[in-house]
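Bench notes, afternoon.
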Amino acid sequence: MPFTKFTNLDFDQIKASIKDYLRANSTFTDFDFEGSNFSVLIDTLAYNTYITAFNSNMVVNESFLDSATLRENVVSLARNIGYVPRSRTAAKAQISFDVSTTSSSKTMTLQAGLVCVGSLDSTSYTFSVPENISTKVVNGIASFSGINIYQGTFLTKQFVVDGSLDQRFILDNSYIDTSTIVVYVKGISDTGLGREYFLVDNILSVNSSSEIYLIQEVQDEKYQLLFGDGYFGKKLENGSVITVTYIVTDGKSGNGPSKFSFSGSLRGSSPSNEIIVPKNTVVVTTNQSSQNGADIESIDSIKYFAPRIYESQYRAVTARDYESIIKKIYPDTESVAVVGGEELDPPEFGMVTISIKPKNGTYVSDFNKSLILSKLKQYTLSGINQKITDLKILYVEIDSSIYYNYSQSSGSDSLKTKVQSSLSNYANSVDMNKFGGRFKYSKVLQVIDNTDVSITSNITKIRIRRDLKALTNQFAQYELCFGNKFHIDSKGFNIKSTGFKISTDPDTVYLTDVPNKTSTGQLDGRGKGILSIVKTLPDGTNKVVVASAGSVDYVKGEVRLGTINITSTSLTSSIIEIQAYPESNDVVGLKDLYLTFDLSKSTINMVRDVIASGDDISGVAFSRDYYTSSYSNGELKRS
């Protein structure tokens, strides 16, 4: 019986197929395969077939970007479509310090290399500068101000061009931050280090005299430098000396240090270039703690972005193009939202609005915004402008009453800890912490119920929150967009806030809403309301301070606060938390809203299920003492 179809990869199935084949031959019709030495030969054939099939399957899988698992193969396949994975990124800090000296030198130079040592959690990290930094000496003091230092070790590598076709310029170290690579080429007639060559990521605008180089990742996360061939880029001369400097970094681990001790090397001005020893101990002032360090791009990220960068062809046209290109030019990007001006309200034609969530922190600095916009210009179409807006975070909170059978539980406190841990895992899942994310209500209910066998049910209410940053002691207007429809209770109290004070009243006040109604007291159906400012009197009653302070659009999910002078807020950092109840329990991060699940501001109550425990057979005690409403409360203040 010939093997016309062979799909079995399991050893036992392969062995059975071989036996079936042999039994089809009349010579072995009644042969006892298990009781003879022939069984050893069959096992050998089956093992050989199994291993060959496995290896063939792996080879085929590693030949395609989607199915490859080894980093070396994924990088190689991405290279075929012109994609270079992001390297590790060195954490950067900014420092200032003064050096006292008795030297007569008019200038002082901080040598490239080690500058400071920072520490975090009993671990020391070295910080370096990639180039020499010089400053004037005034009255025996040299001031180094606003020095950017990079976490890692500064190294130098040299190559001599021998003209052979198989010569490769591979940097010996892994964990290199490729943005710190500086390349000099010293020709036969050059002096010093020679001429600096510059990195390019494509060959557009490159000619035969362009002094450029490219990089590509090779084995063991090392990098190879590629130079011109005389057609695309200047060809290197035989005997030329290539000098490469770079920083090897710990990446993300280098984030955090804010205290530094000086360990740098100082020299005087030419021609003596004397070594300068500081007269006193150098005190380092930290302007900005170490941040923005990142690890090398993951395999999953390469698989996702390589085809998209290729698809964009280095042109920013669609939203996906912008997403891919921004993550390439600003590696600290965690998530990107791109909204065309025609989708804004009111429309801004010819404008693209970009919102970026960095990996470390909440906001992109003004300097980085300018840098990103400058780099984007080479990819965008003429006539289309871009602007980067600050991150807008939409927080989802829950108010959950969790019923449990106390006879099956070790205690409410330990059970609550388990629930919080389960919810924390969901908060870090792929559904959340991104633009366009979606809070899935049914999944959260399942997460809670599946945490422990003792949990019998849960009643969970959802609320959404935006944080308003008040401009204190000045008149201003505010607008907050939630991107989700609000639930409307005709009695009001749909919008709630934390406390704040205004210039016209000394007491703490709060925001609330009054939905628009008809003359009969019913909702008018337009989905709008008035925003009011109210305070609570000592007797517990509420007094309206400003009857019409703004407006609410329940359908669009927008809160607008008119001109007002806020003098202080109950929360720190001039923050006012404003909450609403969504019409749908599935909450979406619309457009430029970054969705996150805030477990720290959520409420979790553990409630004994007396019915499941057998203490209350009739349900009377449950309805009287353990009842939980499924609807929001009508209180003024934010809970």
